[in-house]
Design goal:
By secondary structure, this protein is of the alpha/beta class. The protein has helices spanning about 5-10, 20-35, 50-65, 80-85, 105-110, 135-145, 165-170, 180-195, 200-210, 215-230, 235-245, 250-260, 265-275, 280-300, 310-320, 325-345, 350-365, 370-375, 415-425, 505-520, 525-530, 550-555, 560-575, 605-610, 615-625; strands at about 40-45, 90-95, 125-130, 150-160, 175, 450, 460, 535-540, 540-545, 580-585. α3 runs antiparallel to α4 and α5 runs parallel beside α6 (about 135-145). About 30% of the residues are buried.
Length: about 625
Amino acid sequence: MSYQVLARKYRPQKFSEVIGQEHVTRTLKNAIEQGRIAHGYIFSGHRGIGKTTIARILAMALNCRSAEKPVTEPCGICESCTEIRAGNSVDVIEIDAATNRGIDEIRELREAARYRPARDRYKIYILDEAHQITDAAFNALLKTLEEPPGHVVFMMATTEPEDIPQTIRSRCQHFSFHAVRFEDILGQLRDLIGRENIEADEDALALLAEAGDGSMRDALSILDQAIASREGKLTADAVRQLVGAAPSGIIEEVMQAVARSASDEILRTVDKLLAEGHNPTHFAKQMVRFLRNAVVAKVAGRDSSLLQISSDERDRVTRVAELFSEEDLTRHLQIMLRTHSELGYRQEQRFHLELGLLKLSHAQRLLPLEQLLSENAATTPAATASPRTPTRPAPVPEPRKSELPGSPARPSYVSPFAADSARKGGAKSEMSTESASGPRLVTQAPVMARVVMGSAAPAVQEPSVISAPNPEAPAMPEIQTEAEPVQETAVPNDPVPLAPTAPTTETEGAEEVRMAVLNALAGHQMLASRLETGEWQLQGNELVIKVAASATVIDMTLGPDAKKLIVAAASGVLKRAVKLKVVPGAAPQATASAPRPTPSAPSGSARSRVEQDPLVQRMKEKFGAEIRTIIDYREKR
């Protein structure tokens, strides 16, 4: 008798023998026991995980003659079971849908389905690779699949269920099979090795299980080949040579060379591997798997169940994970994934593999953009702070993992995430941030006081850092911001705020308030023009503005947003809570005597102002950037 491969010799014949698909076998057994047998099933999933096997076992269970009704476990010895197992049963028809995919074959199937089974209870059609059937053929099968005769059961196995029309899927029970776990494949290989009386190393079986990639059939096929090629005991090196994998420690040596930025060692290692006949694509795939496991070991720990590898491989990925930070490992994995995908359609695969590995070495020297600008800003003169306003010391962030003892030395810098958290922790009205090594961000927006939640005006003046004007450099376009109410919080070690001197008289206060309010209403031209010609009065904590308009017009032009701007601007000048009251009744006034204050327009063209900006100059110097497009939003207002 001819030799039978392990995948067929040890093919499961009962539901209890199937590994890794307990959710499917349990449901089918319960359905048989309860008499809830459907007329159509779809089994989908990865290759070699038991779809066709379970379809045959279900067919044997439905037609088993050991009982008067379907059984949960076929006996395996009756005529029906033996014929179905051998593939020559008259009432169980297996069709290769990849070949019989046309409408003519489906018409023949539909005609034959009308006749009762020759001997068994059910006439069962098993359609393998069902996604290959054409749409026209599926449409011809719709009516039969929706209302088949009581003696017909359809079973469709596919690796691509999304290619089956939704009209077919909705008429069947869909079972999605899982990839077999590494531990289950490893246990099954141990059992089969014992039955075959073959000695094998544990690492060799682990390599076979890993090479199976979730497919039990793939692992058994490689085991069959390894048994045929062995001389004595089956070793890990023999399996590695069989599957074309690189030696166990070569990837670790490559990653150690990457950690040292030793490009020459990387190129020599690649040359040695290719001289021994290793495939560049396969080696890149190994690198991807190894780096993925290193990332998992770095994030979840050495003993994580996500690492489906042998104990020796766990030790290797753990040692490599200790050499890099999580950010570096993620970057390395991304580079190798791109390299692996490029090798599939490139002509000179060696060159692209070498380029990808050299990128790993160069990635060690990459610095975040924030750190690069921060280091460059440290060499330039800092902006001068206002003598009246104290500066807030920047908080010192905690050291990163890569800066702890025993980690690779990296230049220390203030993390942009820590700086952003510190900036958000203060008042929203604080318009500048300064750190020991980072760049200084300065805006030209007016200094607004912190507003206590629930009040109409600020309660205390918050210190801010404002750069002193430079008479030689033209001013940049202003960025106007609106202070939002925030909850008052105590900030430790804050300097005592220095409040500006309050206006001395009501007249001076009204004039200052008028100037500040009209500046704040730059985006509300109609309202600003109407208020500009009105009569402004301060009556205690109430700002009264009489305008030459009716109450209806006032309600239409004075919206909630504009009212908030006026109250905030007036409260900021007077340093106390102010209420707003706009009433009709004023006589129209000429605007020549009291011209409306406008923000001073910056001199020069927009391009000249941008080119003289220190940040733009720093970017041009550092990266060789050039200015392509300039949009001046001042001119659009």
